[in-house]
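Request: Could I get any protein with tokenized structure?
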Amino acid sequence: MNRRELGKFLAAGLTTLALRGTTAAEEPQKRLKVLMPVGDATEVVDTLYPFFRLQEEGYEVVVAGIQPRLYNMVTHEIPPNSPIPWDITQEGPGYHIQATVAFKDVKPEEFAGLFLSGGRAPEYLRYDKDLLRITQHFFAAKKPVAVVCHGIEIAAAAGALQGRKATTVPKCALDITQVGGQYLDQPLVVDDNLISCRTWHDYNTPYMKIFIEQLRKASLQ
């Protein structure tokens, strides 16, 4: 076969490949997606650690908000050296995070899991009907749901905590008990697909490890 004939042969082969497309085995494997709802005053450590940790494990973290825009995160901490004692956390400005999709456009069936971050944002996000619809899907489908701190307010508003065990920051205990759930004041609580911790200070427990393990198991079913 001379050079001209070889060229025609290769061209014909490439045309055939283009026409038939790639097979399923040849297609790049799609990354599983985890949904992370945020709003202004989402707590920065609550959010950024899982945001990067999940990506490190190969998951695509999709940040959603009421609108797809840049959101202002905050820090929440009881001041350790304040001359006047604080009963609750002090709020300070944090970093920013970009939401790429609005709640109303989220298709929850496309996601493997849900991460409900804390901060002050859940106080008003829990009134968003689209976010409640999304949250209800994950509980109904028994997909892994990780909750930290005030994120429990979203799960409570979605009616997902009745008969469930969970933890949160102590000042939000009523958000569990008043909807028929059981509040446990401990660093980590695992109740089937619901993994909860009190604050980001409890990230030193197997919290994220358990959430990731559940995501992996769910993907194999």
About this structure: The chain has seven helices and twelve strands. The longest strand covers residues 90-98.
